[in-house]
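Sample 1 of the test manifest.
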Amino acid sequence: MNWSEFFHMGGYAFEVWTCWGLTLAVLICFVIYPKRRNARIRSEILRQIHREQLDQKNDA
Amino acid sequence: MPNSLAPNSKQISAAQLSAIKLCCQRGDNQLFDSVSFDVSAGQCLHVTGPNGCGKTSLLRILCGLNQPESGKVLWQGDEISGNNTFFANCAYIAHKEGLKNELTAIENLRYYQQLDSRRDEVVLDRLLAKMGLLQCADLLAQNLSFGQRRRLSFARLLIAEFPLWILDEPFTGIDSSGRALIESLCVAHLENGGGIIMTHHQSLNDSPLNRYRSELALAKA
Amino acid sequence: MKNTLVLYFQREWQLMFRNTSSMIQPLVFFIIIALLFPFSLPAEGALLQKIGGGVIWVSAVLATMLSLESMFHSDYQDGTLEQMLIHPRSLPLAMLGKALAHWTSTGLVLTAFSPILCITFNIPNEQIWVLFSGLMLGTPSLSLIGAIGAALTVTLRRGGVLIAIVILPLYIPILIFGAGMLSQSAQGLEVASQLYALAAILMLSLTLTPFAIAGALRVTIN
Amino acid sequence: MNPLKSIWNFLSSTYHRLGSPREFYTISQYTTPVFGFLFLALSLFGTYFGLFVAPADYQQGDSFRILFVHVPVAWMSLFVYVVMATAGAIGLIWRMKMAFVVTICSAPIGAAFTALALLTGSIWGKPIWGTYWVWDARLTSELILLFLYFGIMAVYYAFEERKTAEKATALLAVVGVVIVPIIHYSVEWWSSLHQGPTVFVEGGPKMPPEMLLPLAFMAVGFMFFYGYALFLSMQAKVLDNERKSRWVKEIVSDKTR
């Protein structure tokens, strides 16, 4: 099973690998995007909490 | 379907609306929380509070237009959502009068009359006379003054039997004779066993409604 | 007590006659769009004839869609829509009355006018009848399904564009069967199956869309 | 108590627990990695069998291996739409907040699957038909489905008030799911009108087992991916929606303390 013949894909290398590559790319960005959004929202909430704690300190 | 006799000659079914722990949100901020009250026959609930505290939202929840965030509204014991008997017994007059500009005053009233009961010109004319709109019966609604439009939308309440009236700022923009007329109609309605929920930015102490008045103050969110 | 459907149908008719522009605009728009094609395809008699059915159907769809926004807009502005929502009468039946009244002002007028357009596209006479019957069966579904989009976007300031994005994909089956009838009858084949399909879609929209329209209004008006 | 009853109780109790955002968040914290792991395992297994082991197709040669990606993605585009519409219906009928979150978060994933199905379908069609786009019934249905997804996302972002936006999107999803079969059959009839049934017969009359097996693994694997990506984006959405509630503040602060 030599790799060069495998990657050649019987002459359809371009078609097969773009399809699989595209699918992989879409899957990956649908994992990364929500994770990053999750982190961004967490940091926003955290900042909100700190601001509230600061208010309580000033009021107290 | 309630028939179209004049309200003060027949005992209408007793008004009995109760709100239990209503809570309403606009966007992300809370307008009011766990508001509970009862409105029974002969009672006029005056909802007061600063601007933007959700008076109109409360009225829209009570008449079934909006769903509250939590809590229930009961009419004679059962939920109002999708409850046709409640809708038949409750009338809501909002800021927007609910009048078509392309139709004349009498055509607007005729449309509402046909919605609730059979077409009857005599009753229409008597109603217009009572509200002092007889001379502008054939004017297009867009040509009526603001006070005349308020009277016309108020006339709708008298077409059929509505035990519960929900009025949003009924007195704004109305001249003194108009206000006296509306107050007398409200008093007659209350005497007859009906219930009223209204918002009004001034106090009602000096108005004849004061005798039936109970107050609900909505705090600023 | 008048039936809800009849009552709202008559009310819409009365309102439409008060501002007749709502009747004329869709018709003029329909004609202008359809006539753009002969200008863009100079002296191509045979080609015009082939694409005539499709062009007329697309112009009918666009004319209907552009007049959808006005279906609920004026009622929402003056508060009558809210009164309809809290009235004990059945809202779906009322909306069916309104949508059918809207159809008479747009779809019916376009269908009545379509034979004249067929002449400009020199479509042979027997096919004019085919296009007419297709439009007659198809345009009510256009108004009924379009009313769902109109109800969804009634509270939005620039709802027109959104109606197009939301509703046009739902029009594709009607367009396919309607325009397909022309090419079938051009080859002399039977068009009964397309008529049955359009009639089936019409029955579906007559029975289902009123509930979707009522649901959309209850969702957006609050 | 017979097992059926206890299963039903378990299902209905998790259904109700999933109804509240807080419960969903705690449940999703341990189910999301499970979905992720299952997706990886199944799809790697399917990829290995699909690319390495399965023999080349006698007619299409190795280009048929795109089938192991195109077909599962096309199935998923429809599957996500149906899940989105059912969640919308549940949200509208029983007023479940979480059901709307499912509808909103599934729309982008479904649109991505549909776009992917279109791309891979047209790339796969190149060697067979010689062009990237042929008005084939299945590809046209996918194209219309993509517009339906765009319509749903456009409606969600058109409303300012989040609650109205969610309900309007749910309603459109339910209306869409009624019309999708009609679209499918009308396109089916329409494409047979233009040219006879296409030679592009997916997977041939009967798929030999060594082709069917990887396809099944890839399909199930993609379902778990949908679950994984959906739960991830729902977690973000829930935190965003319930930003003001106490439990969100606790979760956020103790995670980083």
